[in-house]
Design goal:
With 177 residues, the protein is of the alpha/beta class. The chain is built from six helices and six strands, in the order E-H-E-E-H-E-H-H-E-H-E-H. A six-stranded mixed sheet has the order 2-3-1-4-5-6, sandwiched between helices. Strand 2 and strand 3 form a beta hairpin. The chain binds guanosine-5'-diphosphate and magnesium ion. Magnesium ion binds next to helix 1. One of its GO terms (cellular component) is endomembrane system.
Length: 177
């Protein structure tokens, strides 16, 4: 179609969840602005960022929600989760505790959004291979047990970031069509 600019077939609300400092805000800025902030402090102000993407023959507005650092105080509000159709559950491959906390985040998402929400497990910071604490195998096994899609990324090196967002959008689209 030549009216690509005005067309919008779907609006999908996607969440970023996971422990503080795993790289959620940088995954979002890498995907929506192709930017990385090495000294990012807690995100202030921005509730979500949007990106228009074409997936197959559909134009999708991805509305991606980021916390403003409330995860540090376990105070992510229920309105954050409401209406979401997908979530990236992020851990830091160099901090094993952030991987152990993934279960808690998944439960929180399912309880507060909807039980059919599509989840993607994301192991971020794979540029830091030397200090890795979570093996790919360990995460893959966990993902299979929980029936989750799984990907490893680096917001810093721009590895698999687009793929992560696009793959969850594709799966959501399959159910929305
Ligand atoms: P958030 O609290 O989950 O939103 O995490 P941020 O996006 O604020 O990132 C926390 C810290 O990790 C910042 O210092 C980032 O620069 C850094 N960071 C984020 N993603 C990566 C990555 O892929 N690789 C490396 N080496 N550092 C990252
Ligand atoms: Mg953040």
């Amino acid at each position: 179609e030549d009216d690509f600019e005005d067309r919008e077939d779907f609006l999908f609300k996607i969440l970023l969840v996971g422990d503080s400092a795993v790289g959620k805000s940088n995954l979002l800025s890498r995907f929506t602005k192709n930017e990385f902030d090495p000294d990012s402090k807690s995100t202030i102000g921005v509730e979500f960022a949007t990106k228009i993407v074409q997936v197959e023959d559909k134009i999708i507005k991805a509305q991606i929600w980021d916390t403003a650092g409330q995860e540090r105080y376990n105070s992510v509000t229920t309105s954050y989760y409401r209406g979401a159709v997908g979530a990236l559950v992020v851990y830091d491959i160099t901090i094993h505790q952030s991987f152990e906390n993934v279960n808690k985040w998944i439960n929180e998402v399912i309880e507060n959004s909807n039980p059919n929400i599509l989840l993607l497990l994301v192991g971020n910071k794979i540029d830091l291979e030397d200090t890795r604490q979570v093996t790919t195998e360990e995460a893959k096994t966990f993902a299979e047990e929980r029936n989750l899609a799984f990907i490893e990324t680096s917001a810093l090196a721009s590895t698999n970031v687009d793929q992560a967002f696009i793959s969850i959008l594709k799966r959501i689209l399959k159910f929305a069509k």
